Amino acid sequence: MFKKIAVQGNAFYSENFDNVKYIKNGLFCIDEKGFIEDVYNKTDKNYEFVREKYLKHGKLKILSKSEVILPGFVDLHNHASQWPQAGTALDKPLEDWLGEYTFPLESKYKNLDFANEVYTDIINATLSYGTTTALYFATVDREPSVLLARLCGEIGQRGLVGKVVMDDHVANPEFCRDVSSIEAVKETEKFIEEVLKFKDTYKQKIYPVITPRFIPSCTDKCLKELGKIVNKYNIHVQTHCSESDWEHGFVKEKYGISDTEALDRFGFLTNKTILAHAPFLSDDDLKIISKRKSSIAHCPISNAYFANSVLPFKDFYTKGVNIGMATDISGGYSPSIYSAIRQSVISSRMLNEGVNPSLQFDKRGRANSAITLNNAFYSATVGGGIALDLPIGKFEKGYAFDAQIIDLTKNIPTYYPEKNETDLLHKILLLSESNNIKEVWVQGDRVK
Amino acid sequence: MFKKIAVQGNAFYSENFDNVKYIKNGLFCIDEKGFIEDVYNKTDKNYEFVREKYLKHGKLKILSKSEVILPGFVDLHNHASQWPQAGTALDKPLEDWLGEYTFPLESKYKNLDFANEVYTDIINATLSYGTTTALYFATVDREPSVLLARLCGEIGQRGLVGKVVMDDHVANPEFCRDVSSIEAVKETEKFIEEVLKFKDTYKQKIYPVITPRFIPSCTDKCLKELGKIVNKYNIHVQTHCSESDWEHGFVKEKYGISDTEALDRFGFLTNKTILAHAPFLSDDDLKIISKRKSSIAHCPISNAYFANSVLPFKDFYTKGVNIGMATDISGGYSPSIYSAIRQSVISSRMLNEGVNPSLQFDKRGRANSAITLNNAFYSATVGGGIALDLPIGKFEKGYAFDAQIIDLTKNIPTYYPEKNETDLLHKILLLSESNNIKEVWVQGDRVK
Q1: How far apart are CA B38 and CA B70, in angstroms?
Q2: What pLDDT band is residue A432 in, cutting at 50, 70 and 90?
Q3: What is the pTM of this model?
Q4: Which residues of chain B neighbour A245 with C-beta distances below 8 Å?
Q5: How far apart, in whole angstroms, are the C-alpha atoms of residue A418 and residue A405?
Q6: Which helix or strand (DSSP H or E) is residue A423 part of?
């Protein structure tokens, strides 16, 4: 039986940070494992021959002119467990948001029925917005965290999931913390082993992630032991880093060094490490992160609520740090990476221009800070792939076929051909809603 | 025949700037003209009696528990004619955006077929996001501007429409300007007369608006004559005011006074005047505007692209100026007032906290600038009604029944009762898309 498939249609992807590639009526050939085997342009001499082969076997999916393919998005930071409170309490100070809302909610996942309901829903919600890969914080409890990983596998999303470590008895309430630092590490290893057992049973694979919530919620003892595990398993790591004045200051006060330096000393910074937020990094921090090839998860919406500042995206990128895009459910209210893309451009422009009209123009902003929509698109696709060290985010040979098929007949005004293809991509990025993301594919399989 | 109708269900509206009112299972009685005749709470002693009366006549619409009614939104600034380019070219400098994209597009509306297609579409697009009242810039050409007004009437949106005045031969390209200052004024009067003729034939009414694009695009002669027309007709006025460093500086240089002072001297500031953008107002400007009872149309998305700053919403409101919400299609890419609400809160927080993490906390932001989601909701409903001097934006006796019915089963995670009703409203405001805005009503009639 002929098990391969091909998709024929118009597609966009990021060629590099600044430029987008448009393939008109391309032929994307996908192998049995869901990887792109070949991409043919209309002008390639084999185009018709190959096309005919797939057509003959009933394995050619032909898109219409009003459909466009984009790479699936990568969400680099999402507290899946906070989904039930998305959009609430963002007017409140962080302490209330955590104490009254977040921690009580995260403690509910011991109930696996509840976990099953919420996690199924957030996976489907993010998929419906074209998020084909997601890096999730679950909760402190192991069992529901394993369940989240399994559900990603079953539903078909490329999930990277962490059981959250938060063992400090002063920083965390009794109902939502690890029993002890020793238990925290044991449970983490057990979590990793359990997920590794079924990791490869799913075509798109599922990955366990070492997840210290952030330095302020963990003891030194625990962080030291966790650092060793990073080395032992060589798997992904995620945590928060220099998110706000408060967090940044807390670590400085505790250790006399920056958050980044401290995380590095504990052994957390690898080429598979994702640091969420991180607006307060110094140039020295950037050097360390760039050397370790770690990445930043940019959370533009939640930063507006809890980070006291805007990530200097352009500056950090220029200094060699890779940046992916993230929703940060539920510090960010939207499960859509489209929303993050939009806000990232707007926030960068506000950093560039400044915000306070009472200041003189030249005192208001921070020059060279604006990113383009192309930059943000790169970050949400290629940047995410680099961050996770996975072959995703492009339509090129060897990449997983993770894709979203956009229906141009809804939400997007198209009255005449755009001046150039990039204009059309920009309309798609700025105006799409879940109802015109018609199909979503992960690793060669349709999941929406 | 019994011509009244009643709607029974859960509803939210703004009681005042800070507080939201929740009516559980209320009964909203609507008269023949589409105004709210009475609102009954479940506890009112006549509730059952009145309910029975409507039920008996087959005139009671009962909403389910998974539906919630919000007031329709007011969009105070929308260039309907720019809809075809929404979401494009926002990375470009203003000159290119205007010269290469906007002016050539606006000149196409002489073709009434094109105008008919686009205007029908933008009215339906904004309606689909719950915008029941919209203040539109059409284009410089009279005929298509009248057509936009008629289409609002026919489709059922409360439209306020202006033929754009832009007569300066240096500032505007030949293919997109008034023939002369005299013609500009003549055409404006003709436009007003034509719209006034059919204004009252529509239940929700349609309003002509005097619309000098902004001072830099008009001659003094024209502005003087237009100012007289404001007085003659006592109708709405809309224009741009102190939008950017450039515009603010241009008027200062030309007249030696601020944009606001200049507009006031020409006679444009009344209690039915809406000034778009306006971040650069001085305290003296605010006093004038407050005295004239004019309002600001807040365009948070487009401000991020073209205004070089954030509107100090809280400060201006505190100083007595009314502010409504606006999409500013297509300087803003989204036709949804939901998007404007979300960005207005985020922008205000960025003004409050500051954006540049390299600055010390106390040097970074502008204190007391953050607005709440409740404030933004007020602005999008009640604020818009005050700006237009129309009885819209509340579910109270004497107000038009302009409403959107929200379907809570889509997009919005609801796993257990929220801690309080406001949390539910916030989820609706932050997570809704057009597909869960199930029905839209204008002046007592369903239009979506």
Answers
A1: 17
A2: very high
A3: 0.98
A4: 361
A5: 19
A6: helix A421-431
